[in-house]
Amino acid sequence: MRNLKNTILFVITFLVIFFERPCLAQEYKRDFKHQPELATIVRNWAEKLGGELWHFGELVTRRNMVIESYKRTSVVTEDGDALLKDMAEKIKKMMDDKVAAVERIMEVAENKAVMQGDDVEPSFDYYNAKNLFNSAPNETFEEQEEIESNGGIENLQMLRQNPENEYGHGDYQGGMDSYRGVVNSGGSKYNYQQDQSIPESEEKLPHAEHLPKTDEIEVTDGSEQDAQASQTPPVNRRFLPLFRNPHFYNIPVNTNHSAVHVPSNVYERSKEVIKGIKWSEELDSTFKNNYEQDPTLSWQYFGSSTGFMRQFPAMIWSQEPVDLFDCRTRSWYIEAASSPKDIIIIVDRSGSMTGMRREIARHVVNNILDTLGNNDYVNIFTFSNTTDALIECFDNTLVQANLANVRALKEAMSDFRTEQIANFSLALTTAFRLLQDFRERKLGAQCNQAIMLITDGVQYNYKEIFKEYNWQNLPFMPVRVFTYLIGREVSDVREVKWMACANQGYYVHLSTISEVREQVLQYIPVMARPMVLNPTVKPNPTWSPVYADVTDPKLTNWLWVTRERNKQRDRFLLYHRNKTLFIPDEQDRKYVRQQKARQDNQKDMQIYRLMTSVSLPVYDRRPNATRVANLLGVAGTDVPIEYIQRLMTPYRLGVNGYAFIVTNNGYILIHPDLRPVFQGILKPAYNRVDMLEVEIMDDDSEPRDFNDSIVDLRKNVVMQSKGHVMLRVKTHLDDLRRIIISNRHYYYMGINNTPFSIVIALPDRYGFSRVQYALDDDIHRMRSNNMIKGSLNQFFTGNWTIHPDWLYCKYSDDKHRFETPEDELLHFLAKIDKAGWKWSRECDSKLIKSLVADAKMTDWFNQNITTTSTKDENGHEFIKRFGITVAFLSTYSGLTRWQDFPQNIGDRDTRDEPHFHQLHNKAIDEVWYKRAVEQHFIEPRSFVYSVPFDIGNENYTVVTASHAIFKEDGLRKAPAAVVGFQFYESALHTLFTKITSNCGDIHCKRTCTSEELYCLVLDDNGYVIVSDDRADTGRFFGEIRADIMAQLLEEGVYKPNRMYDYQATCFRSTDTGNPASRCLTPFKQFYGITQWAFATLIYFIKSTWANEMYPTYEPDQEEMEDPHVVDEPPFKSNEKEFDRRLLINKTRPETCDQEMFLYTLGYKNTTGEAFNRSMSNNCTRPFIVQPVIGSNMILLVINNICLPEPKAILMPDPQEVDYNTSLICYRVRHDAYPRRNYMSCINRSIHEREIELCGRGTTLSVPFVLLLLMLVIRAP
């Protein structure tokens, strides 16, 4: 009945509007003919709105006082080549120091291994990082329990800052707290227990009386009493005093000891492992000496070929959610252990490779792929009677073993089918020919080559094939052959083992999945033999590509699946709580908003720490009775990316300038547009981002049709040439919602003895100009001339902050701790004040001097604003009327000052939101700073206004306004500072309504308060700043009126700019069924039919007697009184329809390319005509548009009587690019860009033929009882 009433009401309303609207339109047209002055009225509105905003902005930011403060400064020109050279030298010096530290570890390790004995006590104990407990007296676990009870896991995570959460050198030292934050970031409002597949991360400690006593900690070096200086270790090796160290991101560590990690697949008490752990304890003194010589060193480590890894300083290794870490599969180990390699994996897919054998083969392939890096090339072929590439578009080629290609190969391995009989001749011939082709054409790795044969049996040794392709230049063989025999019931291993032994390879027999990892890794020492046998040839230090230390890339899918489980759970809980409120589409939109808000607040990278590592191989120099070439392991250290960024002196690059580093493969190591994280989870191929994919030319080209100019620049950069070029490029801002198009100067050069090249990009119009403070404002001149009284700290009062990522002053050791960067700065300023101060590398003297000068010149900003707007309105009322919440000033030296206006904050204090200075403390790196500087060259006397995207009519929405202050010195000018303020959108809406509802001296019948007119203000990118309908705030105007937006484009008011995102993440629907194969026996077929019949019967019963079996939902009293509860559910409670709406669409993240169209205001010569036109009488141009002076906005007044016309425009929402093939295949076919072979190639030795060891098999022992029984049965 209620639905019928609603339907009738809707029909009546439609008929009234349908018949009445033409009458209204005719009346409006008659009135409009008598109101030709509307265009003048709209122009007056725009001028008045702009004038009031500009006047208010000038007063509240005290713009003129800021200009006066910088009057005594001058403008100097920065030399691009000199800046680049200085930056490269600093980075080179730092990298040389890290290499020297690793070389010392390598030399000591080789010497200590020679001196080791063969006898190891069975009870030998060591610091096992996975079993360590913290015995430091100040690190009490009662504190943790208190935090858990008061704030839960998230607060504990913030306090503890566990290894993976903050920083550790291995990809997976992770903390479950981090993962909880990632997988639960959708936010559950119901306080239900999380998915039980996520194990608890909190370890229970032994009882307190078992902890070592405090007096057992002995200080022997006379230094301050700190547990990190403890020289006498506790007796029990399970306990070690660990203290939080700011140098290691507040992780509890012990800088006098190292700890050992043993992978889960390695038996930690085996003889070889224990022997290595024992002699490697001698490395502790080297670790400590390195750290004392270079306090900037991060984690140091030695990874053994037996699997264990010794890491300094010691820390507790978190094993949550699962410990997948094995140092031998990390890029720093793999690339140092052997020279680059081309690998072809050929997998037997004959009919016998089914069931468990197929699964073992898949695991073998996956583990081989895990040992490859960006400098290696690989392909997989499966063979039966034919030999085919596993991925069709990979046929007849080898692909770079980057994360994207490796992931594609792994996924393809789960789909291959077994059939027919294996043709080994064809498979081997195909592999040898392809490798020969790459050798002759000098493609691929251009060093080692190998074939990995995975099969369950070979009946013939195919000697003639090896003779033709591999034995032409004996004793040297271009290709090694590694064979993996799979299955327990293998009758003959002779031929498959001979293949490996005759071709300088290695043979492995596998019968269970559990032994796959350890046996596959046996091939690495074999590939390293030429390096071990050529001791006089030293390999180059290996630098790894950028990687995130928090997690293994394989966990990306797991984390995403777990998050979707939690999302699905929340939807079920919401439905069961209140069915009438459950709207799936609304829930999905809410989920997306939650993710975006969480990204903005957490900045994604709080969980992940990006780094690169430098490593060197460690050889076994011990004498042996028989010829061997053992690789002991790899020594290395980490270099955090943020540490390199500090050496790139970003303050000298200025606003909208940046520097980046490119590897020998053309991939990005450091770049401001490197975005490795999506919604808190690492992207599937986060470190395979090419330079071409972040530097986008402004040439309107098709996706991945890269301009020749940028391709040439990439080639020069990769080849470590030195030069300079200017290009016109597009740069996105604000989460790919805005765009800057400008000319940039690129200066580039190589960093010697590394795979890296450095590039700086400077804006053409202002990138070379810098503000130079007056000589009287120099720190020492002020002191020597007695120009100031008191300390330098007097200039740092009130509300202020500095750029948190810049290096102003910092102790190189770990003995000084500060709560904030501001506290650290004040400490050093006090030291600078003292007599005898000398600048050292602890401080950037140029940055500190600029900062102090800025602070001195802007010290007045802390004074209250007392200026009045009119004689009748005092300052307090003036501020209240405009709803200002904060005014701020930010300088090029990273200083940000602000002033709060508590009279306008009101109830907002009670909301748990970060303050302005917590969100916007990065000065020249803030979006409002960058946009203000660019706006200066469009309209110098203007503010840039913005609101949060898609914010709608939410309460307490703030508008941000910013304005750039330039210092002009003759013909030169440089950005000195940016001033701005934030005020409530509601106050702006009130002002907007007041102005547009009054025609002034002109007689008018209709204003923006009339139903016939729809008025709104748009920013320079087409987003609504303020509107008659506040629900439109923050929306892209094309979503509201596409027809009007299309006309604005035609008239040149806006200009579309095509932009690409080559780091995008798209989502593919996943099959929720079990991918495992199964044998359909008659019993299983009968079971399936029975199950179907039973399910059909249950469905029939539920459909027929649903009302009797399941009572109708009755809301309780509270829900009945809730005004938000709607009367009817949004859809019928049909069970089948309910299931479809309630279940989420399960997906998996994939790399993809996306394109979007971002809009900018047209140039003045194209918009002038549009601003002079009036509204037409016949709805052909149903709008008037005028610029809002002194801003980046336009006022748009629309004839609301004219019905919207269906128009399709290009939207700023990202859309996936369709290449008519997969992105992986498209890259393989088109991305043939040059790379530089940086790594040493040592791939042969005359002595290798003397090595006899070439394989091992699974030892199968027959039980004695079974053997005796067989003898009895055979007895006559």
From TrEMBL:
CDD domains: PDC2_HK_sensor (cd18774), vWA_VGCC_like (cd01463)
Protein's UniProt keywords contain Zinc: no
Region (Disordered): 163-208
Main location: membrane
Membrane topology field: Single-pass type I membrane protein
Every VWFA domain range: 342-524
Keywords carried by this UniProt record: Calcium, Calcium channel, Calcium transport, Disulfide bond, Glycoprotein, Ion channel, Ion transport, Membrane, Metal-binding, Signal, Transmembrane, Transmembrane helix, Transport, Voltage-gated channel
PANTHER family given in the database record: STRAIGHTJACKET, ISOFORM C, VOLTAGE-DEPENDENT CALCIUM CHANNEL SUBUNIT ALPHA-2/DELTA-RELATED
The protein's name in its UniProt record: VWFA domain-containing protein
The organism of origin for this protein: Ignelater luminosus
